[in-house]
């Protein structure tokens, strides 16, 4: 019997891509010829979909995404995490029920799932709703203080400290922070651990930071707007730590328009290590946040907890590492 892996091998694409094409995933962004090739290959190999996994009582995993489908397409970090989850599900023949938080009946769609992964940021009332639906639950990219809930996040504290240490040892003392404000629920402001660690680090070093702190939204345009403010300031920082690569890329454009050279006039560090960061000019020094692996780990945790009847929750952090490229240099007083 032809499998998705057989189609993927012959069509030269990933099994996840084949699955999403065959299931007509509206959020999938592939070339028309790729989709046509996959469908043609499936037909040539006489592929037929298996009957619903529910009839076989296989493991059913619910995945809640905090972004809308449109917003998620703009955020490679969460796309990578989702792909990690999907690839794990394919490898283990797990039925995946994917919902977006802005779906009108998303909670009803999750009822009956053997486990739920919540990817992103959620209000406390939403957390309570998920717990009521399923006891086998994992939160990814959000630490949940509830004693009986498993959560898996990036080690933001050490990641920020590594980036700031790097800039500090290059001689920078006027180090700025570029971040974004995020809200959940009834306009509940989320605290960014990267911002908290930045402030803690600057206080430890007895360095000024209030006038070098810039906050907008986590997108490229916001980074561009903040970059313009920095470029026109009477006294700008000599280095910037941006809480996402998208912010850093926007700032790069603003600096270039203002004839401010990176890294000669200002050093710049991003966060996430998106694919684009390697191809900016100059190539962006950034923190690698392994979102795909986080998705794989999260799916594995919830699957193992079910198979092994694990009841003890886990609070874990994934280490991040600094990728040094070309956007930073040693600072010397001019």
UniProtKB/TrEMBL annotation:
One of its GO terms (molecular function) is DNA binding. Residues 2-58 form the HTH lacI-type domain. Gene3D superfamilies: 3.40.50.2300, lambda repressor-like DNA-binding domains. SUPFAM superfamilies: lambda repressor-like DNA-binding domains (SSF47413), Periplasmic binding protein-like I (SSF53822). Signal peptide: none annotated. The keyword Glycosyltransferase does not apply. InterPro entries: HTH_LacI (IPR000843), LacI/GalR-like_sensor (IPR046335), Lambda_DNA-bd_dom_sf (IPR010982), Peripla_BP_I (IPR028082). Keywords: DNA-binding, Transcription, Transcription regulation. This is LacI family DNA-binding transcriptional regulator. The lineage of its organism: Bacteria, Bacillati, Bacillota, Clostridia, Lachnospirales.
